[in-house]
Structures are given as C-alpha cells and as structure tokens.
Amino acid sequence: MSESLRVLNIIHDSVVDGPGLRTVLFFSGCPHFCKGCHNPESWNIRNGSEMTIDAIVDEVLSNPLTDVTLSGGDPFFQASGVKYVAKRLKEAGKNIWAYSGYTLEQLLELGGDYTELLSYCDVLVDGPFILAERDLSLDFRGSHNQRIIQLKDIPELQVQA
Length: 161
Description:
Layout: E1 4-14, E2 22-27, E3 49-52, H1 53-61, E4 67-72, H2 79-91, E5 96-99, H3 104-110, H4 112-119, E6 123-126, E7 147-150, H5 155-158
Parallel strand pairs: 2-4, 4-5, 5-6
Antiparallel strand pairs: 1-2, 1-3, 6-7
C-alpha cells in the first residue's frame, strides 16, 4: 500500500513495551501533550520521516521473533493509516499492543477508523500519562490511571475483527 505515515522511530527487541520481545512503532503526532511525557518529540506530526505502509510492515516482519507495540505520539492520531499496518501485522500472526492517551471509551465513541484499529489489537494501554500518578514499579504503564485492557473481552470490537 502506497499511503504514507509519519514514523518517529522503529525499535526492535524492546522488553519494556509489552510482554516478551517486541518491535515498537513510534508514530508521530499526539494531541494529548502530557506533562512529563517520555517522548515529547513525538507530539509534532512533522517529526520523524514518511514511510509507506508496505515499508513499515516489511521492517516489522524483518524481525520474525518479535510481537508488535504501536506507540508514539499516539498511533490513533493517524488511525486511518495505522489500521492498515495493524491489519497486516495481525494477518501475519503478530500479537499487537497499542498505547494511547485516549481512553477505551473515547476511542469507541469516536468509532470509524479508531474502532477498526482497536479491532486488530490484542491489548490497549489507555489514558493519558499523569505525572502526579507516575509509578516506576508499574508493569508496561507509566501512571496509575492508565489501564491494560484485553480487547478480546470488548464486545463492540468483535463485530469488526
């Protein structure tokens, strides 16, 4: 697919962005601007580089030992294109986690591309990072308000998957 997305970075073999070894896609663009964000350079959609969906998928699949984490920025900022990346990676058998400053409820209310992207993900880590609730002892999340949600348990997403 020739559509391009803005990607800040792709990191292989991460052990902090979900269970096991993961390839992390850091997408550019974020509307949340969380104080204390660990990746504020990702807020600007113009940062990073343009990559086609094919190039992103090929890069992820070049490392067959890893599962995938969609991060950023916020991958839902570019949901209309990221959904195609997630769909192809899911078809390739990848377990997919997504991080978002939106809550699950907000994403379901937005519907459309947001819900379709969710339907290809296995887990959502939702909610903005809140500096006052930061806790370094938490697994796979930065603040207590964030939730790790198994999406297979969400009936609204089963229709699209």
